[in-house]
From TrEMBL:
This is Coenzyme A biosynthesis bifunctional protein CoaBC. CTP binds at residues 98, 108, 143, 157, 161. Residues 6-214 form the DNA/pantothenate metabolism flavoprotein C-terminal domain. Catalyzes two sequential steps in the biosynthesis of coenzyme A. In the first step cysteine is conjugated to 4'-phosphopantothenate to form 4-phosphopantothenoylcysteine. In the second step the latter compound is decarboxylated to form 4'-phosphopantotheine. Catalyzes two steps in the biosynthesis of coenzyme A. In the first step cysteine is conjugated to 4'-phosphopantothenate to form 4-phosphopantothenoylcysteine, in the latter compound is decarboxylated to form 4'-phosphopantotheine. The gene is coaBC. The chain holds residues 181 to 398 of 398 of the full protein. Its cofactor is Mg(2+); FMN. Keywords: Decarboxylase, Flavoprotein, FMN, Ligase, Lyase, Magnesium, Metal-binding, Multifunctional enzyme. GO terms for molecular function: phosphopantothenate--cysteine ligase activity; phosphopantothenoylcysteine decarboxylase activity. Its EC number is 4.1.1.36, 6.3.2.5.
Length: 218
């Protein structure tokens, strides 16, 4: 990681979970802490990039030199990401909900029967939309959070969403993925695979940026 090597480049980074509201007091969410995406935003800014960070609900301080927009839901995340384009690079580190409740109840849902069925509908896929948009960044990088068959699922997302790179991590185990300070990534392009870590997310952020910088130079 050379200092200033990303000067003149614009990055948009998403981080953290999304919360999909059910009623005024409840939501469907996930375990993302935002650490991975915030580490990437911090490292890119330190290396001279102009960085817009779109953050779901997390308890993290805004990294130095980063322009931050807070969002709650997958729909809000999509709008904030598109408002931050154009950019040279989009990195989707957020754990975006794939489904959200069909409707948000105006009042607190009452306990009334033995079972309760939630109807969920698909959310917008920001990563796929960014990759397909007329203002597509030169480099679109996804993450893949998997509990099994990591490589097959990651390569599937790389192709289907038309990404340049996808960083796959194992979730549901200690020492990587959600919440932990450490992670291990396998970064796939169409041509190659590179394993990074296990290491602190702060170091993996710089190593991922090295791979991105390499592609931008090529
Ligand atoms: O936040 P931490 O606690 O540090 O944890 C880090 C992390 C595990 C959340 C992170 O490393 C990670 O893997 N982020 C992506 C999590 C995820 O939602 O993966 P996915 O395989 O479901 O989604 C694939 C890609 O599509 C992701 O880049 C995601 O941002 C994007 N996506 C998914 C659904 C959707 N509706 N819109 C999207 O943009």
């Amino acid at each position: 990681a050379e200092s200033g090597d990303l000067a003149g480049l614009r990055f948009v980074v998403s981080a953290g979970p999304t919360y999909e509201d059910l009623d005024p007091v409840r939501y469907v969410g996930n375990r993302s802490s935002g650490k991975m995406g915030f580490a990437i935003a911090a490292a890119a800014a330190r290396r001279g990039a102009e960085v817009a960070l779109i953050a779901g609900p997390v308890h993290l301080a805004t990294p130095a030199g980063v322009r931050r927009t807070d969002v709650r839901s997958a729909a809000q995340l999509r709008d904030a990401v598109f408002a931050a384009l154009p950019a040279d690079v989009y990195i989707g580190a957020a754990a975006v909900a794939d489904y959200a409740p069909r409707a948000v109840a105006d009042n607190k849902i009452k306990k009334s029967s033995d079972t309760l069925v939630l109807e969920l509908v698909p959310t917008p896929d920001t990563l796929a939309e960014v990759a397909a948009s007329p203002s597509r960044p030169r480099c679109v990088v996804g993450f893949a959070a998997e509990t099994q068959d990591v490589e097959a699922h990651a390569r599937g997302k790389l192709q289907k969403k038309r990404l340049d790179l996808i960083a796959a991590n194992r979730v549901g185990v200690q020492g990587s993925g959600f919440e932990s300070d450490d992670n291990a990534l396998t970064v796939y392009s169409r041509e190659a695979a590179r394993t990074l870590g296990p290491a602190p997310k702060t170091r993996l952020a710089d190593e991922l940026l090295d791979l991105i910088a390499e592609r931008l130079r090529a």
